[in-house]
Amino acid sequence: MKYILPLLVILTSIIGSLANIYINSDGWYEGLIKSSLNPPSYVFGFVWPILYVIMAFVSFRVADKIALIFIIQLIFNAAWSWLFFYFHFPEVALIDIAILIYLNQRILLIINKESRILFYLYLPYLIWLFFAAFLNASIVWLN
Length: 143
Prior knowledge:
mainly alpha; 6 helices
């Protein structure tokens, strides 16, 4: 499992990225009213690869402790992009990200019992999820 989880992180990033291909193809996302805190699109292209590397590293280090819940959160992670960008279901995507936040809070509690360093390394992912949930919720409320 130790080597499988990082490979699943890579697979998740690819699956999620495939949905993002459709962002510009239909103009739906560009036409949405967004929060004034919504960063430029290129920011996501920098942040997510860093978060995926962190997720892969941490999952490798504590695979035996987090495997099942981590795989479940990866499924929700990959599903969010498809729900939001491809299917244009921001309300369902908001539910998805709420579940994702819950699962990753649980993961952080487990990681914290193993290593404070890994806890602080993984924490930016959860913080980013909260910010992404805020952006998602803003789109739901403003549109």
